[in-house]
Amino acid sequence: VVESGGVIRADANTGGNADDLAFSSNGRVLFKTGSVFEWNNTGQFGATNVTYFQSDAERPVFRLSRNIGLAVGGANSLVVRGLFEANGNLTFAGAGVKIFRDGIIGTGTITQQSSSGPLQISGTDAQLGGTGTIILEAAGLQINAGAQVLLVSNKTINNFSFTNNGTFNCQQFIVSGSTLFVNAPGAFLGIGSADG
Predict the structure, then answer these.
(1) Cα separation values, 61 from 37, 74, 117, 166, 175, Å
(2) Average pLDDT over residues 79-104
(3) DSSP 8-state assignment for residue 177
(4) pLDDT tens-digit series, residues 170-193
(5) 109-124 burial by CB neighbour count: b if 16+ within 10 A, else e?
(6) What does the alpha-carbon distance between residue 145 and residue 125 come to, in Å, rounded to a whole number?
(7) For a FRET experiment, which of 79, 102, 131, 193 has its CA 20 to 30 Å from that of 141?
(8) What is the pTM of this model?
(9) What is the distance between the alpha carbons of residues 142 and 80, in angstroms, rounded to a whole number?
(10) What's the rounded Cα separation, in Å, for the pair 96 and 145?
């Protein structure tokens, strides 16, 4: 059990197995709310037909701390049952959907290749924020129906579309950049700016 405040850090990925520790299929390790799996190397982590973290009840963090040189992703889905904190730069590729249940934050730049499936936020207590820019391609970024996302800082998102199908509460913060923001029918957008 990795308790709140605990960090397991992968400083290398010799043999390509360092990420297996955090896979949902690994029944021997439970990451609790507030714990961190930190990817602190430049190698690719598993990102196709993979779910990170076992529990739907816990809220751990997958933290990327270094730039990843090669694109990650593949034909099948990537699911992070936690918060994705990208403090290094990375590029997503492959047609599989990339689902970040508890949202996306961090200082790194996330780039979506034209081959990539959509980036999705699915949780009911999720976050979006951080100084890092998200650069989208046609599949875009989506807040799923039923999801509730809180904007925790100003966020720059460029290109293509960012679609809200759920609840997006911006508080006093803004989403800037060249992306087309779409608030789908039935979706809720909350803003805290006095200027509207």
Answers:
(1) 6, 22, 22, 22, 23
(2) 98
(3) S
(4) 999 999 999 999 999 999 999 987
(5) bbbbeebbbbbbbbbe
(6) 13
(7) 193
(8) 0.97
(9) 15
(10) 19
DSSP for 113-154 reads -TT---EEE--SSEEE--S--EE--TT-EEEPTT-EEEE-S-
136-165 pLDDT, tens per residue? 999 999 999 999 999 999 999 999 999 999
Strand order in the sheet with 78-80: 50-52, 78-80, 98-100, 119-121, 141-143, 161-164, 180-183
DSSP 54-86: S-SS---EEEE-S--SS-B--SS-EEESSEEEE
- What single-letter amino acid sits at 24? S
Query: Is the distance from CB of 80 to CB of 52 less than 8 angstroms?
Result: yes
Give the CB-side neighbour count of residue 161, counting CA atoms within 13 A: 11
Listed residue (75, 57, 2) closest to 35, CA to CA = 2
Task: Tell me how far apart the alpha carbons of residues 63 and 49 are, in angstroms, rounded to a whole number.
Answer: 19
- At residue 189, the 3 state secondary structure works out as strand
User: Radius of gyration of the chain from Cα atoms?
Assistant: 16
Cβ atoms of residues 113 and 137 within 8 Å: yes
